[in-house]
Amino acid sequence: MLTKLGAAAKKNGLQFAYHNHNFEYTDIEGQTPMDVMMANTDGALVKMELDIYWIEKAGKDPIAWFEKYPGRFELWHVKDMTNDAEKFFAPVGSGTIDWPKIFAARDKAGMKHFFVEQDRTKGDIWEDITKSYNFLNNAKYV
Questions:
Q1: CATH superfamily of 2-138
Q2: What are the extents of the domains in the chain?
Q3: Long-range pairs of 59-66 with CB within 8 A, sequence gap ≥ 24
Q4: DSSP 43
Q5: pTM (2 decimals)?
Q6: Which of 21, 29, 28, 83 is nearest to 52 (CA)?
Q7: pLDDT attached to residue 15
């Protein structure tokens, strides 16, 4: 079905992409929905927009997925996670996600573009976005 949507998008001059959350990485009867999607979609027609926060929240390693499906993750949502039991959204660079390690694997992933997203915040949204921007703008590995 996703490949059909991708073909329809391409026919109309668009590119179809799928964005994950944590539930796609939950094992169901010995497999994950993301594995099923990856095995049953055409990578030329269905791009994956990997949300780094959500894959980490699911307890999965994004690097392992880059290794398993090289070149399939052209788009990334870059957001961080607090270092507490809640594992809430955090400005990029202020949380627990290992950005140098993840960005070092961008070629394996096939990453072409990344987007900073701050779903929710407990503070001032503009302050958090500014923190994320400043962190990434000054990171030598980005």
A1: Divalent-metal-dependent TIM barrel enzymes (3.20.20.150)
A2: 2-138
A3: 59/25, 60/25, 62/102, 62/105, 62/109, 63/101, 63/102, 63/105, 63/108, 65/34, 66/105, 66/108, 66/109
A4: T
A5: 0.92
A6: 21
A7: 96
